[in-house]
Specification:
By secondary structure, the chain is of the alpha/beta class. 33% of the residues lie in helices and 15% in strands. The protein contains ten helices and eleven strands.
Amino acid sequence: MKFGKVEGSEKIDFTMPADLPANKILLQGNGYKGKPNVYVGSPSWNRADLKNFYPKGTRDELTYYASRFNCIEMNATFYSNFTPHIIEGWHNRTPAGFRFFPKVHQSVSHFKRLYDAKTPTDLYLDGIAHLQEKLGMLFLQLPDNFSPANFETLKNYLQEWPSGFPLAIELRHFGWYDGSWDTEPLYEVLEKYNITQLITDTPGRRDVLHMRLSTPSTFVRFNSINADADYARLDEWVKRLKLWVDNGLENIYFFVHQDLEKPMPLFSGYFIKNLNEALGTNLKVPIIQSTNSQMELF
């Protein structure tokens, strides 16, 4: 994830913002008391992005990836509308319980900018529906210059979004977060149509770590800096997610983006282990490859 990347992150304040009273009201009002559904994964199963993860000789990267993680964030669907045959192949090569979290195609978000976008939306959904029961939550990433001035377009688009496709939305323009615009109408729309506002934890844009929930689900994109500070950041996420779960959070979708210099499962494994301990869940901890044998993390 290039968004929010900076050179020299040593001076950045990585303190997690305080929780918001609105979150407790929303979650407790839902009345959910069970264990959450928890999905933790990477943005890609590509070998180049997951250095030292695949055993030597692995040919089917997706099948191996899905034996170690329970989900995948899919950025490839932003750039291409894949054929049903390819999408069905993804479905068939992954086990029961695995989930895909695809990004909505750029023709909807960036070319049409949500205006008069029914045709490209329908084309995209007709294809991605072939993931069947393995389709998790889609996410709609809007351009950096899609500002509160576009709120009516956003509202009109979301009210037409088909309820059978769970959706998260990533808003990147500064104006959504800097206090220059009253955000309550936004949250009224998101809550009304059951749209999750995505949270991005990235070094150079701390404002998008907004911490406001709009549904009993949270979708987090975590941008690693490949440093020890990442461990402390992930520890804080475990604490925050535990708080939200205690208040009634139903679904956790968490994706770790990490640069290529280190094996991506490293931070994912650390996070999964600690989350299992905090929530009493039993997610598999991914493994990396040592020179001669497989080595489980932590």
